[in-house]
Fold:
Amino acid sequence: MATRAAEVHTVVPPLSAERPVTWPKRTKARLANGLDIVLAESHAIPKLHGELFFRAGNAAAMHRAPGLAEMTATVVRTGTANSASRQIEENLRRLGADLSSSAGADNSAISFAGLSELAERLLGMVKELATEASFPESEFERERRQKLEEVKLNRTQPGFLAGERLRKVLFGAHPYAQVAPREEQVAAYKRDDLLTVYRDFYTPENALLVLVGDFNPDAMLEAIEKIFGQWSGPKPVIPPAAEPPRPRGRRVYLVHVPGAVQAQIVVGCHAITRKHPDWVKLGLTNSLYGGAFNSRLVMNIREDKGYTYSPRSSVNPLRQYGYFSVSAAVRNDVLAASLAEIFYELDKLRALQVPEPELADARNYLSGVFSLGLATQSGLLSQLATVALHELPDDYLETFRDKVRALTADDLLGAARKYLDSPNMQIIVVGDRTQIEPQAALFGDIEVFDAHGKRLI
Amino acid sequence: VNRLRIPIENITLPNGLKVVVAPDSTAPVVTVGVYYKIGFRLEPQGRSGFAHLFEHMMFQGSANAPKMQHIKLINASGGVLNGSTHYDVTNYFEAVPSNALERILWLEADRMRALKVDEENLRNQRDVVKEEVRVNVLNQPYGGFPWLDLPPIAFRTWANAHNFYGDFADLDAASLTDVQSFFKTYYAANNAVLLILGDVKPDEGLALARKYFGDIPAGAAPPFADVREKEQTEERRGEVPEKFGTLPAMAIGYTVPARRTAEWHAMTLLDQALHGGRAGRMYRELVLEKQIAVEVDGGIEDVFGYSGPTQMVTKILHKPEYSSDATLGAFDEVIAEVQDAGISEDELDQLKIKFRSDYFSMLEGGQGGMPRYGLMHLLACFALFDNDPQLVNSILDGFLAVTRDQIQAVAKKVLRPGNRAIVFRRPAPGQPQAGVKEAA
Structure:
């Protein structure tokens, strides 16, 4: 019997019939003061997850100083007209809550999670931080010193240095070029700069509140109206930004880290934003190239050749521009070999149609993984926020899987030719130049920098 | 406070495999995990890093699913997968649309039944693991701090004290014979638990478990070495040079009371009083008030998920203008205060509310987009260490019952110099200073 059973089990079981994916109903509203609201129920745990976004971040404050929106967000939680820092932290704990405030290139945000039974009080605290932050001088000074140390520490991390250099190369004079301030820029921050950013950015006309959790949406909407209804303020005026360069031809940028025992590669080129009609095509092309474990790049330089642990590619959608990037941390002696394979796989996708079985697998992957987000409050929150912040259609979640499933090999070939711009990829390598420079120089004219951005050659 | 009522069905198959099913049909997604009761603590001597290298080998092919089939089939079913090696368990897990459940169980059963790997696979994954160690430890500021630094200082038993990621010479020495012997010894059905969570009916889950895993033969009961430590009497200190980082760092670890005792419950809440975010005493005193440190965090890592000596660890990155002694002195003041004055009723109330809230998030929580990773992990550890996965529903009670007196008592008993180890990570002299001003 045992032998027979084992025989039966030598064949991969087929997939059974798919259960329909039902996205939860969203409640969308806009208060009279301009605050946009998106709510969705999720009752798996007695908690809620939320995020209050302001649609302006470090890029919109770049003309004042790099990283200023992030510094502002950091200090927001350290004091209000009514509460000192310690009280705020203890009150959060009393609500079983986690809260963080931060800013990226395009948005500032207060994100939070807590017990649903205490939701109104938590929202009250979020409102207090969003409207009555007092930026105590001593708290600002302390956070600025911490930021200074963080900025120094960043420059010792290969991944940070590679990503930073790529953004400089792709974005030039556009604010997206600068992902972090320099030390002297942090040292020059003034409390008044933070107050200005806070006054301009943290307004209801500029805000979006997304909540997912164990609540009744009607009652929650009423509570939000009561808590946030009296707040007012206009959209900020954001100065126009310079056009980014469009680098032609491959160039190599080596960031020299003495003593590095590995080479961090990042290559990248301009691509598209999330609103672009080709987004889904490029998304599928990316997951087939290097966006999944079962992708060509991972199979090649990890599972076949063992050059690296965690190669990956991604499409990075900022609000105004998007870019495509490939990264891998590789053994020093296989830097050139790894770059050769990275370009080989890019060029192959641009030259040859993807075979149908491989395409079918990739379609299944992308549409399946998309629905995993349904299963947690934070996963759902992130999907709802993506739709709202990138101004995608209301039926985006419902139609995404069908769009993926409709894609053909020709669609992918077109997307690869258009967006995986192999001949114009910019190549960043972070490592010890005495170990890797001759290999790096094989791929284009080379510029060498130190970790602080100073040009060495 | 309402009692948790997560529906859980659990059985043990005749071959000794434990099976736990936790149904929840809110989304058409199922999470499957297989946990083996072996981690890096008990890997063979002379083979440091082997348990983790072996974890990689479990993705390299089994009797009917050759190399890459495992990964390919799960991705192509719309799912994600991974594995991870811990002190006392190693796990393999995937989240997929629920129509792929049977396929996933087939894959997990196939590799539990028979691993099929060759020299080429081993050479390949040894290279991959070395790059993993480089990217996470050797080429990173504060790489391995303090999880690789502290054990050799704190402990005297090889099992607790060796390099868990592995010395490269030991990784190079690992052979296919080692792989098959480790598999035979520890990857037996009777040393594992299968978990099926999410969109599955309990009967269906149990029936599928029997269908795919029922005929895997049981193995001999694996040997588990005695990992107890001799009682520590003196403070232990060590140093590790920091190659890249710009700030001096230290980590202080106290060995905690045995799991699931009253003292352990109290210790866990004391840990929260000390390390619970920005409201925690360590962050408040060292970063916010005295402003000696730039970063402080820590705690008892994975408090439910170990079975052997473990520590509550505080990690501190401090400003260079403060000496190690001054920093440690400020740390000691925080410890002395909680020992002398205990904590207030109000603080204890806050800690309990936060603990309960964190517990819910942990159960739901994802890891790399993996829904219910936390619930899976707890069910697995409670099944393997306590033979009682239902503890998920009742374990909170012990924490919510902790008193102020118990917290003060455990602070006095555990937070002694004679029960701690300290590692100092100082930026290596001669290292290029990050403070150098740039020209442009």
